[in-house]
């Protein structure tokens, strides 16, 4: 979450985002629907893996899923600016 907030602040500091907020010009359309669909699907798969994996392995899988999801979210936030 802190990295997403920092990326959001960086995104709002850009010229394009500030023009969109101030004047309503150069606003980008919303994120594509497929992005949310894939995100929910990957989250469900990560949940099933975490529930099905042995206890010692769950922490590694959960951490890997969390790091990958955070990186993907940051890429989406920064690339959409």
Briefly characterize the structure.
This protein is mainly alpha-helical. 80% of the residues lie in helices and 0% in strands.
Descriptive account of the structure:
This protein has four helices and no strands. It has helices at residues 2-12, 15-23, 33-52, 55-79. It is elongated, with a radius of gyration of 16 Å. The relative contact order is 0.16.
Helicity range of the residues?
over 70%
Mean pLDDT: 77
Whole-number radius of gyration?
Answer: 16 Å
Distance, first to last CA: 18 Å
Helix tally equals: 4
> In sequence order, what are the helices and strands, one letter per element?
HHHH
**Hey, roughly how much beta strand do the residues contain?**
under 5%
Alpha-beta content class: mainly alpha
Number of strands: 0
Mass-distribution shape: elongated
Sheet of most strands: none
Sequence stretches where pLDDT stays below 50 over 5 or more residues: none
């Amino acid at each position: 979450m802190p990295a997403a907030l920092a990326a959001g602040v960086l995104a709002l500091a850009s010229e394009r985002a500030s023009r969109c907020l101030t004047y309503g010009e150069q606003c980008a359309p919303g994120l594509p629907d497929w992005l949310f669909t894939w995100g929910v699907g990957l989250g469900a798969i990560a949940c099933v893996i975490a529930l099905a994996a042995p206890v010692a392995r769950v922490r590694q899988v959960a951490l890997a899923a969390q790091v990958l999801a955070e990186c993907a979210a940051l890429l989406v936030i920064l690339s959409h600016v």
